[in-house]
Structures are given as C-alpha cells and as structure tokens.
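re: that complex we talked abt at group meeting.

here r the seqs, copy pasted straight from the sheet so there may be weird spacing, ignore it
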Amino acid sequence: DVKVTQSSRYLVKRTGEKVFLECVQDMDHENMFWYRQDPGLGLRLIYFSYDVKMKEKGDIPEGYSVSREKKERFSLILESASTNQTSMYLCASSPPPAYEQYFGPGTRLTVT
Amino acid sequence: RKEVEQDPGPFNVPEGATVAFNCTYSNSASQSFFWYRQDCRKEPKLLMSVYSSGNEDGRFTAQLNRASQYISLLIRDSKLSDSATYLCVVNKNSGGYQKVTFGIGTKLQVIP
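got the structure back, here u go
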C-alpha cells in the first residue's frame, strides 16, 4: 500500500518566518509534486520533481522553493511566509509517467 | 479560458438517482484523463481513468469526447457514500514530462 506522509497536519506560523513542509513516500516513486488547495481555486501545482535533485516550476511557484536530496523526500520551503500563503498544502507522488498520483493527508498552514 | 473547467455544484441528488458531471478541457493535445474523488477534509484519490472507448466500474461510467473536448462521469443508483467532490484531471506532454492539471471539482451531495 502506497504511503505518502507529510510532516504536520496543522501548522501556524507568523508572517516573515521560514517554513519547511516535508513529504516522504515509501514506494520508490520517481515523481513528486507539491500543490496548494484553496476554495474556489482547486488544486494548483507549485513545484514538481521527476528525479533526485531535479525540480520544475508548476503554475504558481512564486514565494516557494523546493528541495529533493533523496528520492523518497520532497520538501517545500516558504522563504518568508505571507498571509496569502495560508492554505492546504498537498504532496503527491507517482510512478512515471505520472498517471496515478498518491496524495498525502495534507498540511493546513495558517500564516498570521 | 481555464485549461480544465468543471461546474463546482453542489449537485444535490436523492439516493438512487443517476447523476452526471462534465469536465471540459481547452488543449486538444491533452493525452490522458482521470477522475479523482475527494472526501471532505481528505486527500484526493484516483477514482478511474478515462479512455476513448469509455470505461465502466460498477455504478460508475467515464467517457471521453475528444471532438468536443470533454470528459464525463456518470454515477448510477447514487449512494449516500458517494457524497464527495469529484475532480477532473487532464495530462499532456510538456517538454518531455507530463503536465497535470486538476479541475476545481464538482461537489456531490446525495440526500436520503
């Protein structure tokens, strides 16, 4: 059974803080993704990675960066959190060619 | 125009009813199509892939119309447990990798 875990279910941070969201998958998947989900906007792709140390911008990368040092781990970094980054963050992984994505439970981030 | 469009609903239907959702996509080069289901406060999970010939899984039928650029999901004999948000997903090749785009989802509420 594929398992994707995320470091926190709920997180509250202050404006300007650096925030790390961690995602780990246990199925040796090449592809990993970070999304944010907001009411009325759906799931929007922030960044994705098709291999270790490889990253590609998604549709809304501004204000975010990522790191993939190991195949099983994909980190999302908010360099200086802002209130408009309050959202649900979902990590996913998939084998190539990214047909079925397996999602983690999500991290609800609140920036105050 | 959005790449993937869905009616957000909600669709309120009685138990036992048949309900259908459509999803339109703008890029004719799109290659693969899926329906995901997302329960309230949970992560999305793959419901079914959508093939040109159409496919059926129990009470669920998915169809693709490439000429009109839409996919559909039909649910027969609705159950209370079908209440969820149904996300349409469209993949296309982009620079050697698969670009995945989610619709905003259609909310279904099955009422007793």
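couple things i noticed - The interface with chain A takes residues 8, 32, 34, 42-46, 49, 87, 91, 97-98, 100-105 of chain B (CB under 8 Å). The radius of gyration of chain B is 14 Å.
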